[in-house]
Amino acid sequence: MNRSYLFVPADSERKMKKAGDAGADAIILDLEDSVAAGARVAARERVGGYLAGRDDIWVRINPVGTDDAVADLNSIMPFAPTGIVLPKPCGVADVQRLAAMLDELEREHGLDAGRTEILPICTERPEALFGLGGYADATPRLAAMSWGAEDLSAAVGASANRGDDGNWLPPYELARSLCLFAAGAAEVPAVDTVYTDFRDMDGLARYAANARRDGFCGMLAIHPAQVDVINRAFMPSAAEIERAERIVALFAENPEAGALGMDGEMLDRPHHVQAQRILQLAKRLAAVQEKGCE
Ligand code: COA
Ligand code: MG
Hints:
With 294 residues, the chain is of the alpha/beta class.
């Protein structure tokens, strides 16, 4: 489970060199919107060179159905990326199409079948919002789900997707919530979208804290300075862990009980599940951190 995914435009050798020092749990090398069409061929080659021998590197390819997507995959798959970030899927069918392409390329390059994961940015097209319930059975490659507002707002001709206070306007709050529940239904982590005001660290900290409160497990980052703020926001606090340990212990001591009282509060099954989830998260994140320190 990753708290932070740092986007790095693959047309920038300089940024790619810096990306590894930011402390992100995962890096996404971008071959799509942050790379100009004329720079794409060189960017693909650079991505291959970067991938060799590295872990937790994802690549955002171009949308399924484009020639660029085919060229992206052909050039990166020999170097075994951790996963593919898929922009603008129309729905589950696009994710399955990508999975079928990966089946073939893994075979061709002698990679373990099914090793390449998929993270769709699942709300970038209006029509995609109506099929989000279908991701649960889409493909075992589905590793997480994220969402985006920029392409979605452009697609409907909106003049803004955030209000004057910086908060998402209702149509984009809806898309965000649908992504969260679609990921919940598919039992994969939901990853909140980018916070584009990359100099506003206080705003980012507030946004990320709210994302974690709502159930997101991590966030996309666009700038190295955002990574640490995000990583900290998605760690359960010591107080949360302590409380979760007490809840799990209480249910373990009372295996026949449905509802129990603790600190004057009623606890039942959803609280137990949530406490177990926090402990699991703490364990996984501790493992991620340990790996990052090696
Ligand atoms: N990954 C790695 N390094 C990055 C980086 C990133 N995403 N963003 C900035 N840096 C580097 C810069 O190269 C710079 O290093 P340098 O001083 O050695 O040149 C340093 O971090 C500070 O950058 P800064 O000057 O604060 O920002 P900038 O004006 O150079 O770049 C952006 C601003 C937004 C263009 C840049 O952060 C970026 O490209 N972000 C990713 C965009 C993206 O991938 N979008 C697609 C997903 S929405
Ligand atoms: Mg985009």
